[in-house]
Predict the structure.
Amino acid sequence: MRADFAVPGAAVYRPIGLLLGLLLAMSPTLANAGERSAAETRLKASFVYKFTHFVEWPADSLGPPTSSLRICTLASRVFAVQLGKIVQHRSAHGHALEVFHLEAGNKLLGCKVLFVEQSFDSQIVALGDRLRGQATLTIGESQAFLDHGGMIALLKQGRRLQFEVNRQAFQASSLLPSSQLLRLASKPGSHNGRGGL
């Protein structure tokens, strides 16, 4: 199966498997750890953007076409800025995308996507309580995130980045992952995290 998985501002990654399978074979030609870290941040942000196209929300949850689809980040400001650059002037499901960087105490109302950096994993349980009943796609960076009901986790395996999907979490929500997303996930169907953050 082939599909294009375009990263805004960069060349198109031809087979989707190159980005979603090989996916972050961090280039050994990068000069230093700083460049590798910046490249990894860009790639993770690109994943978050692309996931919005592989998940369906209930029609009534997105609001009118003039409303935006908000991607909230509980992450470093560097990540939020990079994601903002990627989604600028882009849309998903007919809605303009916007990035909202969460600070302590911010409400999660209106977040259709929530990305949680691994350094914020200690807040997973509290986030679950705050998100209950909302149609929010949750994306994290650890097995613990999946185990506590997160939907997708971006996981590093050596120099590669891959993702796992918690099918139980999707089944407990009103969101529908595409069959393509499920096929491309590593160990499809093998994760037995609990349902719903």
